[in-house]
Amino acid sequence: MQIRPMTPGDFAAFWPIFRDIAAARETYAFDPDMGQEDARALWFEAPLESWLAEEDGAILGSYFLKANAAGPGGHVGNCGYMVAPAARGKGVARAMCEHSQRRARARGFLALQFNSVVATNEAAVALWQKLGFDIVGRLPRAYRHAAHGLVDCLVMYKWLEDEPRLAMPEPVRLIGRKNIEATVSRRRKRE
Q1: What Cα–Cα distance (Å) separates residue 177 from each residue in 107, 110, 124, 180, 189?
Q2: Total-model pTM
Q3: Of 18, 112, 149, 152, which residue is the least packed, with the fewest Cβ within 10 Å?
Q4: Do residues 125 and 119 touch, judged by C-beta distance below 8 A?
Q5: Distance of CA 43 to the CA centre of its chain
Q6: Where do the domains of the chain lie, and which CATH numbers do they carry?
Q7: End-to-end alpha-carbon separation of the chain, Å?
Q8: In whole angstroms, what is the distance from residue 64 CA to residue 42 CA?
Q9: Contact (CB, 8 A) for 69 and 76
């Protein structure tokens, strides 16, 4: 498998994959009736980079990389990934996600955030977690799934820098009245 920059001519070949995934209404909140030119603007022209995964001339998938927000939030990147149905389960999404993290670092992003991972897309959620993304938020009933109706979306986040993750402080231990009295009594006896 090769992952290379998408060229203007590549989008037409990728379009059937995009169209079918958007029309399925299972993973992306894109208008299922979106036309090719609008899709091209969204996936290829607006992002900083768009990449294509292929093997022996067959398109396996694509991803884009862009800033998640502007100004003070511009250090956090955002990606979208699509894998051709025939290529699912073959490591394409993993390879593209690992590639996108390297590209994000090269572009100066310090983190990646996925704003709306459909919770019923269990394979993607599990893969992103294996690749170090944390679920940092849940949007109740934020997606109208074609088969499941209203389902939750997840916000997922990964800090890309090599510094160790900050450990969460230990929760404060609540103690009952008898334990407080015993602790205070022990202190007084020692003093």
Answers
A1: 55, 46, 48, 5, 18
A2: 0.82
A3: 149
A4: yes
A5: 15
A6: 2-159 (3.40.630.30)
A7: 71
A8: 10
A9: yes
pLDDT tens, residue by residue, 131-150: 999 999 999 999 999 999 99
DSSP code, position 43: I
Compute the average pLDDT of residues 16-39. Answer: 95
- What integer best gives the mean pLDDT of the chain? 88
Residues pairing with 112 in the sheet: 77, 158
Q: Please, which contacts does 126-135 make with residues 24 or more away whose CB atoms are closer than 8 Å?
A: 127/93, 127/94, 127/97, 128/97, 128/156, 129/156, 131/94, 131/97, 131/98, 131/101, 131/158, 132/158, 133/157, 133/158, 134/158
Contact 62, 80 (CB under 8 A): no
- Angle in degrees, CA 2, 120, 30, rounded to 5: 65
The structure tokens 């407080």 sit at 180
Q: pLDDT tens for residues 30-51?
A: 999 999 999 999 999 999 999 9
Tens of pLDDT, residues 53-71: 999 999 999 999 999 999 9
Contacts of 154 (CB under 8 A, 6+ apart): 114, 116, 117, 118, 119, 125, 135, 137, 138, 139
